[in-house]
């Protein structure tokens, strides 16, 4: 995927969503590493419709790519690494950065719009259950 906001975008442990939406729900920044540039806008729209934000990084680790990857890992609440379109080096580097921060990633071979929508639905269900437990 192309570059989103910032220098270039398994649930983290602990899971700590960032901001709160106008509906009072947690806004989760979902970082996606790898994928196709043309999918970025659609994923961004799907995330926004679900009350979240999508951050993207194309998986490139040359030149400024490493700094962009670090930015994404620091700012995303949930990181998805696509393995089919990333080099082994990019996957290892992203996982190492997450591990150093005590976090993990969701590893997916590929992720199209339907799969991303499933991820968003699961995230919504997770938040719903957490609210019920808290009540």
How does the SSE layout of this entry go?
Blueprint: E1 29-33, H1 40-49, E2 53-57, H2 65-75, E3 78-82, H3 88-100, E4 106-108, H4 113-134
Parallel strand pairs: 1-2, 1-3, 3-4
Helix pairs in contact: 1-4
DSSP strand (E) fraction? 5-15%
CA-based shape: globular
Structural class: alpha/beta
Question: Uncertain runs with pLDDT below 50, 5 residues or more?
Answer: 1-17
* Neighbour order of strands in the largest sheet: 2-1-3-4
Radius of gyration: 14 Å
Tell me the series of helices and strands, N- to C-terminal.
EHEHEHEH
Terminal Cα span: 39 Å
- Summed up, the helix count is 4
Q: What value does the average pLDDT take? A: 82
The amount of helix comes to 40-55%
What's the domain count? 1
Largest sheet: 4 strands, parallel
Query: Which fold does the CATH topology refer to?
Result: Rossmann fold
CATH class: Alpha Beta
According to DSSP, the number of beta strands is: 4
CATH architectural designation: 3-Layer(aba) Sandwich
């Amino acid at each position: 995927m192309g570059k989103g906001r910032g220098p270039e975008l398994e649930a983290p442990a602990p899971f700590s969503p960032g901001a709160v939406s106008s509906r009072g729900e947690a806004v989760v920044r979902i970082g996606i590493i790898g994928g196709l540039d043309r999918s970025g806008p659609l994923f961004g729209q799907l995330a926004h419709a679900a009350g979240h934000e999508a951050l993207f990084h194309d998986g490139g680790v040359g030149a400024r790519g490493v700094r962009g990857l670090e930015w994404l890992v620091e700012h995303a609440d949930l990181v998805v690494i696509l393995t089919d379109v990333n080099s082994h080096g990019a996957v290892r580097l992203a996982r190492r950065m997450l591990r150093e921060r005590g976090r993990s990633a969701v590893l997916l071979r590929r992720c199209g719009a339907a799969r991303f929508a499933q991820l968003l639905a699961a995230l919504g269900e997770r938040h719903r259950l957490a609210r019920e437990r808290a009540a």
